[in-house]
């Protein structure tokens, strides 16, 4: 019911600061399970196969965490190490697929009891997977509700990344049982505290149960780097933002609250050290347990915890990161053998547009903790450090052993939420180091170099050539993170080049780049999770850019499956890619095969793989019919999945115009069907303009918006406009120079 829907169920003071005890009884059909926040204490048989169940009164809690479910669900059960009754529910036919969430969840709950230093506050924890749910999950106290793909895992059918999604979402929601539920924000302007916090510690919980997954390094590619782009728009917003009406509250359930919130807490943890951070956290939770608090309360608990260690003023630091939008670009210049000048400025991907609103009185200056090392020192674990305390520029010294020809690197492990630019000389040295021995840099920093460089090239801070030169070493790169960072930008270039003469050279370059990785990883999918992810990338990219061997293998697998539909020969991790290729290079028969598989599968993750693969077709009429299916009266596509269909078709270069026509022609229908859902409608509006890059499309987009009410997607629409403008400028600036670079590189 978060944020403002409890009032639809019962009359109440429906704001987070009003806590109340809820005494619940539910009258329900006897064969159905009725679950709510508290543990059941009494069951009475009523007439005609009805039952009245009474539950233990809840602790004092806010209305938005209230929940009840009644239906035919089955469960699996564990008792946690500290005696909490833990159940995982689903449709009866899927109940075996709750096992993984149950096992990993009951370990994580115990881990968090230890991490937060506070026992789990309730007698029981239920988790339930329901077939149609707009959000990923909702952390109702004692009764967490999930969409099926976020909780059910079938090792026979699902991929490693499906499994990771389950672990991560379960960990996220369990973290809320303390952060959000036990201690609740005073008002929604501090929503980021809930979501940022859960987005950070979800990684710690999963790292505890699945130590081989490299969760802590995955943070930078899954949470930190992806939000940099949105937060460099002038239409972004501060993590802490004034909100009043329900539509405004709904708007801030976005990646600024989740990803940026999590990233700045990870940064703060690194500044304070794990020990100080968790000590302050426990004090904060204990002081405000069963009550409400705001950001300032957390900052004062952390300042107190750091009193005898660093003695930092946490509020002064964090206000610069939470009260103003965006983040700094730190530009470095080496002025002598040891001396480096650092200069900070608000980083905007489209500076000519300015910022939509001035926020707070921070003046777009930040307290930036610079951690750095150099080639001779080569210490990423215990780096040197310097503070920029809202100064426009500072000077700092490299280690006294540094050689004048050494590279230096700032933002070790990418703990800081800022981008880094170097003098040209240093970019060259870093590039040389990558070519000779890239392993000197941690995975996080190799990904960071690529991510920063492409972004800085896009904004004109460095040449595109400098960024592209960094990719040359990738022939030797076997790790996931740098590839993820690269593919992100390469797919941007690819989408921008869809109608450009540069597409040919790009395809050839990408073939050459990925082939060594593709050859070394092969198709045999039995090793550690990070390798499996990397293989999936290699095969996806090799097939996308039409490496012949990849196309042959994928098409053979798809044909084998069609001939023997009861026996799927495709590795679970590679299904998305193989399905997409089968449909892309096939015709009507291949598409119908996929559609029927989508309809007949009872597994939500499998269904969602088919949904995205079905958008890979090259037949316009098939794609158009597919779009129409989403709004048909007897639609077979759940509303939670509609934006996936639109993204799949919109990312297909043949489908982009079709999606646009679809949105314009059927807007009223789409609005009526989906605008009541926070997540669904915004993701539809944001999916469509991502790859628009011509003046004509911009005019059409603006005309489309004139006088139109986008409801909860108002900001999303504006961000769409800005995205198109950035794409247009990017094309004007880089189409030719990238094409030339690619031709030379071949
Ligand atoms: Zn959450």
List the helices and strands and how they pair.
Blueprint lengths: L5 H4 L9 E2 L4 E5 L3 E4 L3 E7 L3 E6 L5 E2 L5 E4 L2 E6 L5 E6 L8 H18 L7 E7 L6 E2 L4 E5 L12 H17 L6 E3 L5 H19 L5 H16 L15 H6 L3 H18 L1 H15 L2 E3 L1 H11 L8 H9 L5 E7 L4 E8 L20 E8 L9 E6 L3 E5 L10 E3 L8 E3 L2 H14 L5 H16 L5 H7 L9 H17 L6 H19 L7 H16 L3 H16 L11 H10 L3 H13 L3 H10 L6 H12 L10 H9 L5 H10 L1 H8 L3 H10 L7 H11 L8 H32 L1
Parallel strand pairs: 9-10, 10-12, 13-14, 15-21
Antiparallel strand pairs: 1-6, 2-5, 3-7, 4-5, 8-9, 11-12, 15-16, 16-19, 17-18, 17-20
Helix pairs in contact: 2-3, 2-4, 3-4, 4-5, 4-7, 5-7, 5-12, 7-8, 8-9, 12-13, 12-14, 14-16, 15-16, 15-27, 17-18, 18-20, 19-20, 20-22, 21-22, 22-25, 25-27, 26-27
The protein binds zinc ion.
Zinc ion binds next to helix 3 and helix 4.
What is the CATH homologous superfamily assignment of the domain at 6-213 and 274-308?
Neutral Protease Domain 2
What is the strand arrangement across the widest sheet?
8-9-10-12-11
Bound molecules: zinc ion
CATH topology of the domain at 6-213 and 274-308: Neutral Protease, domain 2
Largest sheet, in brief, is: 5 strands, mixed
Any low-confidence stretches, pLDDT <50, length ≥5? none
Q: What is the top-level CATH class of the domain at 6-213 and 274-308?
A: Mainly Alpha
Binned strand content: 5-15%
Please tally the β strands and state the result. Answer: 21
Span between termini: 56 Å
Structural class of the secondary structure composition?
alpha+beta
Identify the overall geometry: globular
Q: What do the pLDDT scores average to?
A: 93
Task: Give the CATH architecture of the domain at 6-213 and 274-308.
Answer: Orthogonal Bundle
Helix count, DSSP H or I runs of 4 or more residues: 27
Please tell me how large the radius of gyration is: 26 Å
Helix content: 40-55%
């Amino acid at each position: 019911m978060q944020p403002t829907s409890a009032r639809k169920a019962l009359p109440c003071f429906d704001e987070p600061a009003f806590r109340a005890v809820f005494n619940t009884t539910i009258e329900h059909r006897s064969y159905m399970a009725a679950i709510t926040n508290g543990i059941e204490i009494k069951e009475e048989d009523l007439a005609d196969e009805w039952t009245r169940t009474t539950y233990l009164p809840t602790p004092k809690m806010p209305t938005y965490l209230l929940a009840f479910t009644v239906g035919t669900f089955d469960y699996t059960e564990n008792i946690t190490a500290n005696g909490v009754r833990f159940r995982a529910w689903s449709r009866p036919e899927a109940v075996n697929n709750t096992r993984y969430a149950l096992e990993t969840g009951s370990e994580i709950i115990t881990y968090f009891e230890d991490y937060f230093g506070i026992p789990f506050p309730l007698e029981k924890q239920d988790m339930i997977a329901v077939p149609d749910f707009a959000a990923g999950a909702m952390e109702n106290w004692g009764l967490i509700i999930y969409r099926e793909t976020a909780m059910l895992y079938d090792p026979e059918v699902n991929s490693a990344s499906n499994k990771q999604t389950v672990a991560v979402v379960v960990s996220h929601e369990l973290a809320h049982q303390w952060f959000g539920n036990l201690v609740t924000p005073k008002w929604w302007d501090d929503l980021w505290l809930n979501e940022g916090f859960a987005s950070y510690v979800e990684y710690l919980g999963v790292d505890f149960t699945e130590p081989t997954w490299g969760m802590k390094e995955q943070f930078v590619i899954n949470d930190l780097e992806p939000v940099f782009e949105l937060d460099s728009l002038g239409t972004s917003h501060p993590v802490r933002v004034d909100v009043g009406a329900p539509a405004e509250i709904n708007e801030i359930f976005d990646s600024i609250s989740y990803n940026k919130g999590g990233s700045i807490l990870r940064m703060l943890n690194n500044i304070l050290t794990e020990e100080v951070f968790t000590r302050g956290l426990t004090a904060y939770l204990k002081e405000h347990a069963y009550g409400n608090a705001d950001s300032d309360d957390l900052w004062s608990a952390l300042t107190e915890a750091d009193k005898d260690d660093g003695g930092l003023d946490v509020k002064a630091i964090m206000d610069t990161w939470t009260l103003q939008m965006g983040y700094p670009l730190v530009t470095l210049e080496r002025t002598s053998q040891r001396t480096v000048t650092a200069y900070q400025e608000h980083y905007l991907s489209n500076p000519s547009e300015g910022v939509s609103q001035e926020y707070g009185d921070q003046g777009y200056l930040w307290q930036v903790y610079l951690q750095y090392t150099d080639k001779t020192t080569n210490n990423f674990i215990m780096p040197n450090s310097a503070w920029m305390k809202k100064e426009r520029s500072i000077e700092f010294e490299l280690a006294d052993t540094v050689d004048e020809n050494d590279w230096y690197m700032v933002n070790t492990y990418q703990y800081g939420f800022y981008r880094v630019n170097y003098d040209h000389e240093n970019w060259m040295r870093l590039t040389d180091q990558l070519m000779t021995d890239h392993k000197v840099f941690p995975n996080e920093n190799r990904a960071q170099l690529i991510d920063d460089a492409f972004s800085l090239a896009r904004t004109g801070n460095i040449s595109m050539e400098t960024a592209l030169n960094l990719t040359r070493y990738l022939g030797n790169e076997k790790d996931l993170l740098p590839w993820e960072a690269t593919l992100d930008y390469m797919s941007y270039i690819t989408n921008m080049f869809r109608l450009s003469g540069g597409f040919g050279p790009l395809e050839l370059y990408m073939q050459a780049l990925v082939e060594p990785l593709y050859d070394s990883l092969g198709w045999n999918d039995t090793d550690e999770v990070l390798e499996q992810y990397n293989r999936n990338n290699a095969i996806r990219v090799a097939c996308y850019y039409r490496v012949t061997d990849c196309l042959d293998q994928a098409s053979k697998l798809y044909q084998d499956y069609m001939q023997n539909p009861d026996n799927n020969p495709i590795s679970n991790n590679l299904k998305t890619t193989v399905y997409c290729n089968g449909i892309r290079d096939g015709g009507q028969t291949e598409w119908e095969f996929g559609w029927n598989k989508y309809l007949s599968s009872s597994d939500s993750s499998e269904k969602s793989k088919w949904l995205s693969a079905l958008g890979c077709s090259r037949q316009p009429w098939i794609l158009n019919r597919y779009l129409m299916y989403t709004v048909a009266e007897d639609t077979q596509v759940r509303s939670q999945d509609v934006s996936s269909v639109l993204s799949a078709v919109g990312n297909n270069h043949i489908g982009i115009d079709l999606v646009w026509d679809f949105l314009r022609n059927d807007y009223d229908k789409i609005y009526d069907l989906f605008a009541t859902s926070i997540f669904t409608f915004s993701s539809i509006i944001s999916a469509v303009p991502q790859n628009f890059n011509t003046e004509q499309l911009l005019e059409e987009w603006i005309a489309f918006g004139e006088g139109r009410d986008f409801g909860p997607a108002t900001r999303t629409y504006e961000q769409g406009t800005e995205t198109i403008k950035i794409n247009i400028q990017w094309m004007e600036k880089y189409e030719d120079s990238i094409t030339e670079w690619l031709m030379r590189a071949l």
